[in-house]
Amino acid sequence: MQEFYEEKADALHEECGVFGIFSPEKERIAPIVYHGLYALQHRGQESCGMVINHDGLFSSHKNLGLVGEVFTPEVMQALPEGQIGVGHVRYATTGDAKIANCQPLEINHRKGHLALAHNGNLSNAYALRDRLELGGAIFHTTSDTEIIAYMITQKRLRFPSIEKAALAAMQELEGAYSLILMSPTKMLALRDPHGFRPLCYGRLPSGAWVASSESCALDAVGATFIRELLPGELVVFSSAGIQSCREYCAKKAETFCSFEYIYFARPDSHLFGLSVHDVRRQAGILLHERHPVDADLVIGAPDSGLDAALGFAEASGIPYRIGLIKNKYIGRTFIEPGQDHRSDQVRIKLNPIRSVIAGKRIVLVDDSIVRGTTSRQLIRLLREAGAKEIHMRISSPPFISPCYYGTDIDSKEHLIATGRSLQEMAAYIEADSLGFLDPEDLQTMLVRAGRGSDHTCAREDAALSACPGLCRACFTEDYPTSIPAGTRKNRFENPLDSI
Amino acid sequence: MQEFYEEKADALHEECGVFGIFSPEKERIAPIVYHGLYALQHRGQESCGMVINHDGLFSSHKNLGLVGEVFTPEVMQALPEGQIGVGHVRYATTGDAKIANCQPLEINHRKGHLALAHNGNLSNAYALRDRLELGGAIFHTTSDTEIIAYMITQKRLRFPSIEKAALAAMQELEGAYSLILMSPTKMLALRDPHGFRPLCYGRLPSGAWVASSESCALDAVGATFIRELLPGELVVFSSAGIQSCREYCAKKAETFCSFEYIYFARPDSHLFGLSVHDVRRQAGILLHERHPVDADLVIGAPDSGLDAALGFAEASGIPYRIGLIKNKYIGRTFIEPGQDHRSDQVRIKLNPIRSVIAGKRIVLVDDSIVRGTTSRQLIRLLREAGAKEIHMRISSPPFISPCYYGTDIDSKEHLIATGRSLQEMAAYIEADSLGFLDPEDLQTMLVRAGRGSDHTCAREDAALSACPGLCRACFTEDYPTSIPAGTRKNRFENPLDSI
Amino acid sequence: MQEFYEEKADALHEECGVFGIFSPEKERIAPIVYHGLYALQHRGQESCGMVINHDGLFSSHKNLGLVGEVFTPEVMQALPEGQIGVGHVRYATTGDAKIANCQPLEINHRKGHLALAHNGNLSNAYALRDRLELGGAIFHTTSDTEIIAYMITQKRLRFPSIEKAALAAMQELEGAYSLILMSPTKMLALRDPHGFRPLCYGRLPSGAWVASSESCALDAVGATFIRELLPGELVVFSSAGIQSCREYCAKKAETFCSFEYIYFARPDSHLFGLSVHDVRRQAGILLHERHPVDADLVIGAPDSGLDAALGFAEASGIPYRIGLIKNKYIGRTFIEPGQDHRSDQVRIKLNPIRSVIAGKRIVLVDDSIVRGTTSRQLIRLLREAGAKEIHMRISSPPFISPCYYGTDIDSKEHLIATGRSLQEMAAYIEADSLGFLDPEDLQTMLVRAGRGSDHTCAREDAALSACPGLCRACFTEDYPTSIPAGTRKNRFENPLDSI
Amino acid sequence: MQEFYEEKADALHEECGVFGIFSPEKERIAPIVYHGLYALQHRGQESCGMVINHDGLFSSHKNLGLVGEVFTPEVMQALPEGQIGVGHVRYATTGDAKIANCQPLEINHRKGHLALAHNGNLSNAYALRDRLELGGAIFHTTSDTEIIAYMITQKRLRFPSIEKAALAAMQELEGAYSLILMSPTKMLALRDPHGFRPLCYGRLPSGAWVASSESCALDAVGATFIRELLPGELVVFSSAGIQSCREYCAKKAETFCSFEYIYFARPDSHLFGLSVHDVRRQAGILLHERHPVDADLVIGAPDSGLDAALGFAEASGIPYRIGLIKNKYIGRTFIEPGQDHRSDQVRIKLNPIRSVIAGKRIVLVDDSIVRGTTSRQLIRLLREAGAKEIHMRISSPPFISPCYYGTDIDSKEHLIATGRSLQEMAAYIEADSLGFLDPEDLQTMLVRAGRGSDHTCAREDAALSACPGLCRACFTEDYPTSIPAGTRKNRFENPLDSI
């Protein structure tokens, strides 16, 4: 059975950040949303948007581009004061980079306006969309956020409040969703029962509540972190205060995305009470235990390999050094300016410090390998700079399988681990040796990072174990939900036959 | 009973232009749509868009701005070849100038993609939207085009083809709609049974079919005009050729918008077989018959008063002169650049030729008066230039009532005719005399323009009278359909109570 | 002897508009300059700029684009209040469309800032530039305005005031220059002794003085027209009032550009006291006298042929009709969007009204013919619309020679009149007959337009004849100044050998 | 005596980067200049530009913005192939951020085109400009690059080649200039005899020569580093090969800017044969020797304090940790979006890792302190995150005096060191202790970094000592050249009196 349009299937794979604010007083909240999104920019650099609620009227601005590009001073000035605001940053594959897909999604329905900011992917999107379409639904976007909007508004016709409607919809949604939702009078934050994606909230000195994908955005706006949402929890922020609905909590196995710890989240964020930086440092320590090597110095691939490199150096006693300088202006805006000059992308982004590297045996630590081509270019660059040996250490297991919960992993045939032994991988990237973590190490690094940590915030419920359960499906093929059949296929053999 | 959001009510009042092409071969059709929209630009200067269909895959670009601004060379180059294309130009009130409302509307549903370009307004939009929302529909836009999209796609679930679905939907749609619709394999053009808004089609030398709001766009792309659609007709353009469905034809009284003849359409277009220029010239002749005056020269207010001024001059024997020069760079982009300099907008746009005007008794012909403030400024400008007498002649009756079929007429309390006698109106605009056409004259000007004209194209069905029936509701309050109750009201007394 | 860089030679051919204001009080003058430039937009659509003087500090904005595009609300808001402001609109050939060449030109020198807005071209630019370069001057632009700036600032080192310096510079400048110049404390308006290009001034109700290329811009800002500058006059506007320096007046033969009357100026402007519209109407009357024809109706090519067409109709008794509709959105922004669709540019811009044209013998009046290809396309368009005969009448003589004073006339080999008899020209454009004015008619049309006119403003000096002397060099090859040798040539055979 | 316009004085303080290429064959060199400028972006983020020389014709693009913003794919595509190209990145104070001041400066003169890219500031700019203005020169910009252009072109009138002219001009130029100059056929790189600013060259595999401010840009384009220019050297790149003119070498004391080592240059660049990273690491080691402290961990202020922090950690044995995370999207585009939310800028840019910081005694290493307010905010942030003690260590001496050679140092009254003892400074920034390097340490850190280094490239001349002589004027008030009197003053008491 072929299920979906090609472009729809591609769009399912994305990573995003959400931010919301509920203020007891009408005030200039747009700058707060702006700063929150700025702090979450690493979760999505392709498009961004915010919606401001002024006495029930919604004003919004969304566009392709970084927060600093989209929200010019003119745009900011045009946004009104408000009590509630919600924002979103988004990454998506190229073909899907349409303004129509920018979030927050805004809809009008029987009971008023609704704005939704979503991080994650539904694993039963196809089935739900089929059902909705057979019921007469039409879709403007190719994102599954629109499916959630339909589910909630249809429930709203039969339930007396938006939170009741949202709870009823949660019954039918499967997969990953950390969601901030804004009605004319309320802000709702909700997290799927598996807890795939992060979501937390805090409070500003003004008394306003703020919700965010990561705690670093609370820090950026000067808010005090309160706690992470429990998997399956829905929190309602309204003029009546805040209210927690936990009827879906602890109904499903907790499977927090391990790749949030490894790569996605900012090192200064806390997830399930654990410092991301600490977890990565522990990954580096574990990596040394699994794959020790005799070398002269340890360097990290900027920026994502630095924390683990420091851990590796600490555990091994090999000196930590700065060996690669990243051009800090390389961003989303870097476009290869001409076909004639076949430039080496890695060379543009990273430059080795020859005086550090030359004649040395190097341990190079990075967070992950996808295709291996970038690692190979990096290793060649270090050899040109005079490195005597290069021992690559990766602070995660090899990818072997796709993600259905919001991470855009390359298709299986391109993954370096597909059909290659560890030695063949090392040869492919031209490293003297190569080491990964084992899938089991992921839990270990959390346990270790948790020792002596103040990681009680999300663990307040004594019924929960000390560390979060992890989703490791991309490393093990062991999926915590049923996965959709026939994805990445066209619904119709020949779309021109269908109508 | 209060029905709708404020912004929704405002959005109902708009004027638009539609254009489509169906080519037997895949080719560069985007430039053809571009030229068609350029020729229809006068029907909507706020936003524009086009969707190109390449083997069932839709590529689109829409934005606020004029055709020449939105479709830059880079944008045009990025649009693919295709067999079918549809485009739209749109005018809307300021508050509604959102990218989300730009057309063509694109949706995905059970049976594939659909793109719709719509001109007109449904008079039963509120009732239909209510019904759809109660059935679980959500709305992204505030335009009634989305309602039509829902109606058609819901029918499509039960009917075997898009044309059958569209015909079934027409059963329930009331009001004005001239629509071009694109499915993965077909282009549909349809016109409501009243025939409120124009729609015609023709053929390119290449064999491609083109449909357009006005015939001037067929001329612009080098197409041969074939005929206008009959009121109630649906024409299907497909690889099987063209097919006309007339089951709704002649089911309702034909009420073509008289203001299309008076102002909207380009003078070089033909509507119901009549040259718009000829009709306006006849309006000028009639105006002389109704309100003759002794004067030295006749001038028209550029550009919309020129055709009727020529007719008035011809009938009266008073010389036609060029007395006002319009700054041809004043367009949508003119923004009053500073609050300090309270400039006279009319003075910026129009400048009298003193040597023509000074010492003369002037007949000034314009197409219509809304509030009267612009006419007064214009008359003052002519007096400053030395005019001895100014006799204003208007080639339409006074507005007295709102339009529910796609024309944005000012609210009743602002209309110059509200509560004023003809003499009071003349005094208000500071004219020496003032004359309007009578509502009955509208039919007369068509009959006269039709004499000796080759106006058989749309009149091919002998059952139809020689001239189109006209909608004159804005001049008479005599509406051809039932009109919606409670428009321009908020649905909720207090929107914050609702959810 | 080869004289100049290729791009410099090309840049000599341009047409521009200048505008300035001197206010006794500091106020928001930027919007006044904006409106003035808007009214002069027809004199240059490629770039524009303004400089505002706030207590001797200059703030400026210049860019490629129309006034309404370049001066966005943000830009306007950023411009400060001031006492003096000067603005410029510019046309130049494509290769020269650089921001560096945008005017007003701003320079810093020994005695302070200077801003210059210039319309015209020096005929001794090459000689002056040579001399300056040998004295060590460097040039940033390719325009001769920079030469004027050098001349004035070098004189300023030896003369006690900017006006004395400017007068001293005028001694050496040859050719066409209507110039507005702003120093930290004064505004100067000056016009070359031949009076090639127009320049006038007036006064606002606030007491501020405004100077402008054409009187239509005075009307647009609500200023009272005072008078045109005399050829050779320099007027100083300062806090001490206004002062006229006439030592160069009547030193040279007055040779006002006849093409200003024929095409450049707006019909609502007055030049040498004559209404441009009146002059064009007289051209139409003369055209009928020279080349009468038996026909059914007279139409003008919009917009520049309309005034003369009305005159032709009036003189001949043949009815004047509107037969061609111009797409009023076609402007500088029209870019042919694709190479695949070889569209007919004339068809995009103009559309005949078939009901007016069909079966008729047409007199088609236009202001001039350059290459003849556009006229031929237009005539074909009218034939397609059913015209029985087309008699083309041109309200100027044929071009035979280049202009060295600011008009960009096509090179000789492309001019339709080069090597063709009148009949051959008619055949080339496919007209049934063709008629031009004679060069002598240019003076006649002024004399006739002047009869009964209030054209005393610039003629206040009794020593001047009733009508301006005209430059007709482009029609006669009889140049009023010596003309530069070797223009349009590279200075160096091989530029790579030179340095 | 008051010397200069206010804006001119402000403009003297800037830092820039230059890049050039000379290719034996015509090729697509614009992408190479693009990549070179991208690697030099840290030297100037305000504007950038490049000029491409195609057979003696210059094509250029310059604008405000980052390289990736200014050089869009469209702009890159429009730039032609060429043999020679020169590029520039620039920083300047806000008031001066004009397009007119963007470099490379392009001028036309007697002998052809010239393009100049300049890094540095002349210390005798005022005197030279006075002399030039008295000779009739006019200035378009407020930068001293235009002075250099005048000097060279005036010499060119008397000297037979551009290189002879440049050498003659060098006789009169005082202060800092690292310059790349392009004539129709040659590229010149020259460096002032003091060697204030860096300049080096290398070669591409294609045989093309590239010159650059820093070696990191040679790495980025894949060029092999050859050597740095000697202070006072001029290198000519032409079709005849390369030629070194050393008549000004060793004529003046070498005074290389010490702040290039401390802050400006990228750590992966080599200056005078020394790795910038190594020098900074030695600064950290020296800092430990001068100001040891008992602490738990060492952290660097990202990014400029990281290298020295690593050195401090290494020397002290105190563990190096990552304690502050920088938002990597904060760039030039970050604009405080609203006045209502008085956000803490430091909080937006940097976030402490609480789990690392809490309860710890921290050594915080940064490169320099200007006003001290940022340091204070940073220290408060660390205290909020739970730091027990904070010991600030600065890898440079305190600023006490302005720079006249191209560095924009705050005015004396704002510098933290003005009128404060070390302890008062520590109290001001709220640190538990504070330590700076001594001015003498600057030479020591170079000597140490040089030991065992391959730093022979620029030291090839045996007459030169092993390490560069340094300019330390901003730390010592001991200026290597005479310094201009009366800078930062208006030339005229009242500019309105002057003209």
Structure description:
Four copies of one chain form a homotetramer. Chain A has 499 residues and is α+β, with helices and mostly antiparallel strands. Chain A folds into two domains: 13-255, Aminohydrolase, N-terminal nucleophile (Ntn) domain (Glutamine Phosphoribosylpyrophosphate, subunit 1, domain 1), CATH 3.60.20; 271-328 and 346-445, Rossmann fold. Chain A contains 17 helices and 23 strands. The first copy, chain A, has helices spanning 6-11, 30-39, 67-70, 73-78, 125-134, 145-156, 162-170, 215-220, 258-264, 276-290, 306-316, 345-349, 354-357, 373-384, 422-429, 439-450, 473-476; strands at 16-27, 47-54, 57-64, 82-90, 105-109, 112-119, 178-182, 187-191, 200-203, 209-212, 224-228, 234-238, 241-245, 256-257, 270-271, 274-275, 297-300, 324-326, 350-352, 361-366, 389-394, 433-436, 470-471. The first copy, chain A, has a seven-stranded antiparallel beta sheet. In chain A, helix 6 (145-156) crosses helix 7, helix 10 crosses helix 11 and helix 10 packs across helix 16 (439-450). Chain A is globular. Chain A starts with 5 loop residues before the first helix and ends in a 23-residue tail after the last helix. Residues 1-13, 338-343, 454-464 and 487-499 of chain A have low confidence and may be disordered. Chains B and C meet through helix 2, helix 3, helix 4, helix 8 and helix 11 of B and helix 2, helix 3, helix 8, helix 11 and helix 13 of C.
